[in-house]
Amino acid sequence: MNTFVHLNKIKIFARHGVLPQEQLTGAYFYVSLKIGYDFSKAMLTDNLEGTISYADIFEIVRLEMAVPSKLLEHVGGRIANRIKNEFPQITSIELTIDKENPPMGAECLAAGIDIKIEY
Q1: pLDDT tens per residue, range 77-106
Q2: Selected catalytic residue, list 11, 84, 99, 116
Q3: Does 84 participate in catalysis according to the annotation?
Q4: From 2, 16, 46, 73, which residue has the greatest number of CB atoms within 10 Å?
Q5: Using H for helix, E for strand and C for coil, what is the string for the chain?
């Protein structure tokens, strides 16, 4: 059985970007995660101890997104590593970070990165 915990399109204001102006003014980002984890115990017991709390995952995302970085790749790597360190029992992470309206001289709703790690 494959089971996953996911959060879709968490909207967060942050200051990431290569250009100094991006780190000064900031932008909105959308973070989505899909975390592989055996929560069959929670399916039987209705107990939070058998799964991973969405709130705990959000807190990791919030803390890492608060650290200004030039590259979304770096932010995504930090988020994935911290989740794995705090929840070593996970079997996979899929992570997407999209930057709303990136400054690139073209009309674009969002640009971003995807990370998929199997453990």
Answers
A1: 999 999 999 999 999 999 999 999 888 788
A2: 99
A3: no
A4: 16
A5: CCCEEEEEEEEEEECCCCCHHHHHHCEEEEEEEEEECCCHHHHHHCCHHHCCCHHHHHHHHHHHHCCCCCCHHHHHHHHHHHHHHHCCCCCEEEEEEEEECCCCCCCCCEEEEEEEEEC
pTM: 0.93
Average of per-residue pLDDT values in the chain: 94
Paired tokens of 102: 């990136």
Q: From CA 99, how far away is CA 27, in angstroms rounded?
A: 7
Q: For residue 59, give Cα distances in angstroms to 19, 31, 114, 118.
A: 27, 12, 20, 22
- Domains of the chain: total: 1
